[in-house]
Automatic annotation (TrEMBL), chain A:
GO CC field: plasma membrane
Residue intervals of the Cytochrome c assembly protein domain: 11-184
Protein name: Heme exporter protein C
Segments passing through the bilayer: 23-43, 55-82, 94-114, 126-144, 156-179, 203-223
Pfam families listed in its UniProt record: Cytochrom_C_asm
InterPro entries recorded: Cyt_c_assembly, Cyt_c_biogenesis_CcmC, Cyt_c_biogenesis_CcsA/CcmC
Record has Transcription as a keyword: no
One record GO biological process: cytochrome complex assembly
GO molecular function: heme binding; heme transmembrane transporter activity
Intracellular or extracellular location(s): Membrane
Family in the record: Belongs to the CcmC/CycZ/HelC family.
TrEMBL record, chain B:
Keyword Coiled coil (UniProt): no
Catalytic class of the enzyme: hydrolase
Stored Gene3D superfamilies: P-loop containing nucleotide triphosphate hydrolases
Species this protein is from: Mesobacillus zeae
UniProt record similarity statement: Belongs to the ABC transporter superfamily.
EC number: 3.6.3.41
InterPro entries per record: AAA+_ATPase (IPR003593), ABC_transporter-like_ATP-bd (IPR003439), ABC_transporter_ATP-binding (IPR050763), ABC_transptr_haem_export_CcmA (IPR005895), P-loop_NTPase (IPR027417)
The organism's place on the tree of life at top rank: Bacteria
Protein name (record): Heme ABC exporter ATP-binding protein CcmA
Any GO MF annotation of the entry: ATP hydrolysis activity
Gene: ccmA
NCBIfam families linked to this entry: ccmA (TIGR01189)
From TrEMBL, chain C:
Signal peptide location: none
Topology relative to the membrane: Multi-pass membrane protein
Function: Required for the export of heme to the periplasm for the biogenesis of c-type cytochromes.
GO aspect biological process, one term: cytochrome c biosynthetic process
Protein name: Heme exporter protein B
Entry's family note: Belongs to the CcmB/CycW/HelB family.
GO CC annotation terms, alphabetical: plasma membrane
Transmembrane spans: 25-44, 50-71, 102-122, 134-157, 169-190, 202-225
Subcellular locations according to the entry: Cell inner membrane
Species: Mesobacillus zeae
From TrEMBL, chain D:
Lineage: Bacteria, Bacillati, Bacillota, Bacilli, Bacillales
The protein, known as: CcmD family protein
Organism: Mesobacillus zeae
Superkingdom, natural source: Bacteria
Annotated TM spans: 6-23
InterPro entries the UniProt entry points to: Put_ccm
Record keywords: Membrane, Transmembrane, Transmembrane helix
Record's keyword annotation contains Transmembrane helix: yes
């Protein structure tokens, strides 16, 4: 009886398509297309840096979304430690994965931008250095997840490290900024804040639209990734059921 | 003394314990029997507060495990497969350390008398790493009871022991029993189980399938009953 | 509360006594720090005056790399005969076990520093410490922060089969603020003492890091040590 | 100009690489589910 009831449930679970997921997909695709139009056609060309400055939009959008992704990791890690529900762990894991992908984008576009505008591949500039350390921290997070053992243990350890790592980020940023400004004053006008009030309004709009589009993409990927993880978990669960039935 | 209600333990998708209900009275000596992989050691680890159950309740001496873990830990003496001893320390140093960890007073005298009661007075100041398996097990037994536990949890204590060590262990268990200690013992050794246990429970596939008295019964009774239960297809 | 310190001292005493018995870890750490000094003498010509500039960095490289040797052993040594489980089922709090281990590791790294730093100064002919008091303070603060989060992450990494490889990957990025701050403060104190306020600011940063992470580790260590 | 093109192509390469890996994961899972359903129907 019990087995029968579950047999009914499987297709329902696997073939369900969340409407939120669909909406996010459409939103992200449309948003990215619009931001593309804004970046390449609509927004003006920056005077000193020229065309290359257009890297800035996706660079900053990825960086801020990555940071939000890691914040979500922190939140779900905390929730997992308190409630010990597997779904929280799945959210943290998927969010960290997307955050890591976005950080990788930041770390590749950063040097390209640096090379073109400052003629050096890497500048030990606070934001870039912090991002690099962030990348290492979340790589370490995945090393913990690749340990062998039961999921509960891995999830617990990863959650603890996800919290430690995120709390470390502001301190890392602060110390690096301090280190840089005292010994290698920043000569290059990097990042949005240094450009101060002189930003063209259209540039700001383009940046905001790009950030929003990347955020939507993040939301879609998060839901998709969580759904896939959920599928995997249910699948393993049912496999185990079948294995048991075969043994008995 | 020990009450377990609907105890389950899940590791990934495998159920190791599937709802164990167990009640053990004060001063009883109970054997836990069952085939390999049935979940006996896991049950003992849950009772020893080493691993948390996935669901279910455990209470020891009326204390609920989740709420008063600290108090419960003081009551338990746990003897697993591994010796829990520091290799390069002497038996005395090991016992004094663990005694202090349990907040005991006059540890030194207590440790010395315990070591002589397991027959190792000659080796008081010899590092444990030079000991044979049987000697290590004797020290491990002494370690498990250094803090006068009210509940003794033993995981296959007779395995690999010579006759002398096994007798020592049995006499330790019986002395503790006289003081009112409750003993729970996972074992494969029917002879020893029949000798010192009053009751036996059988676990198979993470479920408790039998619970019967052993008083006055001999090894053969236990053996045939166990074979009937485990191999007779009851599950 | 007194039980907390009593148990922590018990663990620290046990670890240090065990070290006295086996003399494995501390000896290795000191020899290793000597080798680091030797390698640096090849990398930077000790006869040149500019070499003085790398000395603050070398000090912290010694602390970090020999420290990680000790941290690795700290919990692995409890896996033999599953003594870690014995500690966990005893009435001691996980936080007091952590604090005890921290004290033992901290004592060991202080001994390593006591031996290797004078040795380094001697070999590199360095004799103009700006302020001995501040120098010792920055060594203390930096080592404490590094060891406190290091002990915590060692407990975490001990769950893995390849914990020796995992620990540096976890530890180095997380402790980067300490390493930056400690090297900068040491540099100012050793060679540029008139800029002392800057060094003090760095030490405040390290101090804040120490406090935040020590408290955080005490709270979270319970979740790391569950079996 | 080339830098701009390189930068955006790398961005999209990484993005599509990630999405592709998700898609592959999904097909693999769906395949296993089909297999599982067959298994269950047999029993």
């Amino acid at each position: 009886m019990e087995a029968c009831a579950e047999k009914e449930k499987v297709p329902v679970f696997f073939e369900r398509k969340s409407s939120l997921e669909k909406a996010l997909f459409i939103g992200a695709a449309a948003g990215l297309l619009i931001s593309f139009y804004l970046i390449f056609i609509w927004s003006p060309i920056e005077k000193t840096m020229g065309l290359v400055q257009k890297i800035f939009y996706i660079h900053v959008a990825s960086a801020s979304t990555a940071f939000i992704a890691f914040f979500i990791v922190f939140v779900f890690s905390l929730l997992f430690i308190i409630k010990r529900k597997r779904i929280f762990d799945t959210y943290a894991k998927v969010s960290a994965e997307i955050g890591l992908v976005l950080t990788t984008i930041v770390l590749t576009t950063g040097p390209i931008w640096a090379k073109s505008s400052w003629n050096t591949w890497w500048a030990w500039e606070p934001r870039l250095t912090t991002t690099l350390i962030l990348w290492f921290i979340y790589m370490a997070y995945f090393m913990i997840r690749q340990m062998d053992g039961v999921w509960e243990k891995k999830a617990r350890l990863a959650a603890v490290f996800g919290m430690i790592g995120f709390i470390d980020v502001p301190i890392v940023f602060f110390s690096i900024r301090w280190w840089q400004s005292k010994f290698h004053p920043i000569v290059f006008g990097a990042g949005p804040s240094q450009q101060g009030g002189g930003v063209d309004e259209r540039m700001l709009v383009t940046l905001l639209v790009t950030i929003f589009a990347v955020l939507l993409l993040y939301g879609y990927l998060l839901l998709k990734g969580v759904a896939l993880e959920g599928m995997k978990i249910t699948l393993n669960h049912r496999k185990e059921k079948i294995r048991e039935r075969l043994i008995q | 003394m020990i009450v377990a209600r609907k105890l389950t333990k899940q590791a990934d998708d495998k159920f190791i314990l599937r709802g164990i209900d167990l009640e053990i009275n004060k001063g009883e000596t109970v054997a836990i029997l069952g085939p390999n992989g049935a979940g006996k050691s896991t049950l003992l680890k849950v009772l020893a507060t080493l691993i948390k159950p996935t669901s279910g309740l455990v209470s020891i001496k009326g204390l609920e495990m989740k709420k008063s873990q600290h108090e419960i830990r003081k009551l338990l003496g746990y003897l697993p497969h591994s010796s829990f001893l520091y290799d390069h320390f002497t038996p005395l140093e090991n016992l004094v350390f663990y005694g202090a960890a349990y907040g005991m007073d006059h540890i030194e005298e207590k440790a010395v008398s315990l070591i002589s009661s397991v027959g190792l007075s000659f080796f008081l100041n010899e590092p444990v790493k030079n000991f044979s398996r049987g000697m290590v097990q004797r020290v491990a037994i002494a370690r498990a009871i250094i803090h006068d536990p009210e509940v003794l949890l033993l995981d296959e204590p007779h395995t690999g022991l010579d006759q002398g060590a096994a007798d020592t262990l049995n006499s330790v268990i019986l002395t503790m029993k006289e003081k009112g200690t409750t003993t729970l013992m996972v074992t494969h050794d029917f002879k020893q189980a029949a000798e010192i246990c009053e009751r036996a429970v059988v676990i198979k596939n993470g479920k408790l399938i039998a619970n019967f008295c052993l008083n006055g019964k001999d090894v053969n009774f236990l053996h045939s009953k166990y074979t009937e239960l485990v191999e007779g297809g009851a599950s | 509360m007194s039980g907390f310190f009593k148990n922590a001292f018990l663990i620290a005493k046990k670890d240090l006594y065990s070290e006295l018995r086996t003399r494995q870890v501390l000896g290795t750490m000191i020899i290793f720090s000597g080798l680091v000094i030797l390698v640096f003498s090849f990398a930077f010509d000790p006869a040149q005056n500019t070499t003085k500039a790398v000395i603050p960095g070398v000090i912290w490289v010694i602390i970090v790399f020999s420290g990680i040797l000790g941290l690795n052993r700290s919990f692995i040594s409890e896996q033999r005969n599953d003594t870690m489980q014995a500690l966990l089922i005893s009435p001691m709090d996980p936080s007091s076990i952590y604090f005890g281990k921290l004290l033992a590791n901290f004592t060991m790294i202080l001994i390593v520093e006591l031996v290797s730093v004078p040795f380094l100064f001697l070999l590199f002919d360095f004799h103009s410490i700006g302020s001995v008091g501040y120098f010792l303070l920055v060594l203390f603060l930096g080592s404490f922060g590094f060891i406190s989060i290091g002990t915590f992450l060692a407990a975490l990494a001990a769950n893995s089969k390849s914990s020796e490889m995992l620990l540096p990957l976890l530890l180095f990025p997380v402790t980067s603020p300490i390493l930056i701050g400690a090297v900068q403060a040491t540099k100012i104190i050793l060679s540029n003492i008139e800029k002392l306020p800057d060094a003090v600011a760095w030490m405040q940063l390290i101090g804040a890091y120490d406090v935040i992470f020590f408290v955080l580790c005490l709270i979270l260590v319970e979740y790391v040590m569950e079996v | 100009m080339t830098y701009l093109v390189v930068a955006y192509s790398i961005v999209w390469l990484i993005m599509f690489g990630y999405i592709y890996s998700l898609g592959k994961k999904q097909t693999k899972l769906l395949k296993e589910i089909e297999f599982l359903k067959e298994m269950e129907n047999e029993h």
